């Protein structure tokens, strides 16, 4: 059952009471009605965050940045803020579920500080990149990942992370730093690149890798949110109010996505994600079209699809070879 864990039930009740108090003091029903698109966006975004290796920002960032033309920095911050609730809620549901071994997810404790270093590095060095390039990069990232994810036979079987060589550790560290840098631009992305590495290089079980990517992005979202509040001082009252509008939606929908992941064959949902990402990419290029936008979109998509496809297809080939030897 979805609410079988006492810890998760307690978490959910406490967080809803906290939301009610914050909403009463900092927000209002008229503001919520005027900004209905924030919680509406996160109904799908949070569900995807719990169901797949893509965070809720995979929907929130392009919808806010491209469709509603909200400043890229504000769309990134909203992604971080909302994932700090939704993906944390999904993580707690996963960790308190009966039958899960907590030791399986212990490596996440080491992943987080490395990704945070990448986030800080990205906040320091990458923020001057033109907005249309960042938008093209993000849309290419989520579209090509989803295409490769759905179309390749990449299912691993290991439930524990096994790093055997210094090269494994170096690659893992580089990917985690790159993921943190992605999060500094989009508010998400660290989960996608980590998942890809776990199921290819380390041949981990798909669901375990998804759970680990969710936990990493949850922690990085909390820390990134904190960085923006306490270090940059960049979070406005308006952003807090929009966060409160979507807060109760993601608190429920993200763990619900994780619950569905355990119950259903989810290929249909993943194909819907691909269709959504294709629409987002098309809208981005058709709205105020330019040769530069199209060139960046096509070039980045080709490169990233090649990276994801080769990475995920490698696992499939290795499994076929292993089966032939048996």
Automatic annotation (TrEMBL):
One of its GO terms (cellular component) is plasma membrane. The keyword Lipid biosynthesis does not apply. The chain crosses the membrane at residues 12-33, 39-66, 108-126, 133-150, 170-196, 208-228, 240-261, 296-315. It is found in: Cell membrane; Membrane. It is a multi-pass membrane protein. Keywords: Cell membrane, Membrane, Transmembrane, Transmembrane helix. Its main location: membrane. Pfam families: TauE. InterPro entries: TM_pro_TauE-like. It comes from the Bacteria. Belongs to the 4-toluene sulfonate uptake permease (TSUP) (TC 2.A.102) family. PANTHER family: MEMBRANE TRANSPORTER PROTEIN. This is Probable membrane transporter protein.
């Amino acid at each position: 059952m979805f609410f079988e864990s006492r810890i998760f039930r307690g978490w959910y009740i406490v967080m809803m009471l906290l939301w009610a108090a914050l909403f009463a003091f900092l927000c209002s029903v008229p503001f919520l009605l005027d900004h209905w698109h924030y919680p509406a966006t996160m109904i799908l975004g949070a569900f995807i965050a719990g169901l797949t290796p893509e965070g809720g920002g995979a929907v929130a960032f392009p919808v806010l940045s491209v469709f509603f033309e909200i400043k890229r920095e504000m769309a990134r911050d909203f992604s971080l803020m909302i994932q700090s609730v939704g993906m944390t809620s999904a993580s707690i549901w996963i960790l308190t579920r009966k039958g899960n071994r907590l030791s399986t997810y212990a490596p996440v404790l080491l992943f987080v500080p490395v990704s945070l270093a990448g986030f800080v590095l990205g906040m320091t060095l990458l923020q001057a990149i033109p907005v249309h390039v960042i938008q093209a990069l993000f849309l290419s990232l989520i579209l090509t990942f989803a295409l490769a994810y759905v179309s390749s036979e990449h299912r691993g079987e290991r439930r524990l992370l096994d790093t055997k060589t210094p090269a494994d550790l170096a690659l893992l560290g580089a990917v985690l730093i790159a993921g943190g840098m992605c999060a500094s631009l989009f508010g998400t992305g660290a989960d996608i690149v980590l998942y890809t590495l776990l199921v290819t290089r380390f041949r981990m079980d798909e669901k375990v890798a998804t759970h680990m990517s969710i936990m990493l992005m949850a922690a990085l979202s909390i820390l990134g949110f904190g960085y923006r509040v306490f270090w940059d001082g960049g979070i406005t009252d308006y952003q807090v109010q929009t966060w409160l509008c979507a807060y109760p939606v993601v608190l429920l929908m993200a763990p619900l996505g994780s619950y569905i992941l355990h119950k259903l064959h989810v290929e249909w949902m993943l194909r819907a994600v691909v269709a959504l990402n294709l629409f987002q990419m098309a809208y981005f290029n058709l709205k105020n079209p330019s040769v530069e936008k199209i060139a960046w979109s096509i070039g980045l998509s080709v490169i990233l699809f090649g990276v994801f496809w080769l990475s995920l297809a490698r696992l499939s080939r290795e499994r076929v070879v292993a089966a032939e030897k048996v």
